[in-house]
Amino acid sequence: MSEEITVVAIVKAKKGHEQEVAQAMAACVPESRAESTNIQYIPNRDLDDPQTFIFVEKWTSRQALQDHMDTPHFKVLADTLKDSVAEPLAVHILQPLVA
């Protein structure tokens, strides 16, 4: 079985902070996609709940995800979001059942 993982990270913005969250997420995209272990990195906004944002990511391994979380650009994102989120980030680390 491959070590590749999919990550679904759910960010719930405080009311009135939606634009700030969207901009911070978008700013992290170029450097995250440039990481050699990144396969996919897509920030999304829930059309039915404008305060909910969802990252869908694919990494070559769980270690690759950890390395990503240690990068300066991810730390800037986390720092920017800390006062703008209504609840803790929900992160789901998934591995496919079948190829």
Structural features, described:
- With 99 residues, the chain is of the alpha+beta class.
- It has 3 helices and 4 strands; from the N terminus they run βαββααβ.
- It has helices at 18-34, 62-69, 72-81; strands at 5-12, 38-45, 52-59, 90-94.
- The chain has a 4-stranded antiparallel β-sheet with strand order 2-3-1-4.
- A hairpin with a 6-residue loop joins strand 2 (38-45) and strand 3.
- Helix 1 (18-34) runs antiparallel to helix 3.
- The mean pLDDT is 95.
Defining traits:
alpha+beta; globular; 99 residues; single chain; 4-stranded antiparallel sheet
Helix and strand content put the structural class at alpha+beta
Nearest-integer average pLDDT: 95
Strand proportion, as a percent range, falls in 25-35%
Low-confidence sequence ranges: none
Estimate percent helicity.
Answer: 25-40%
Termini Cα gap: 9 Å
- Which of globular, elongated, flat, extended, rod-shaped describes the shape? globular
- Radius of gyration (Å): 13 Å
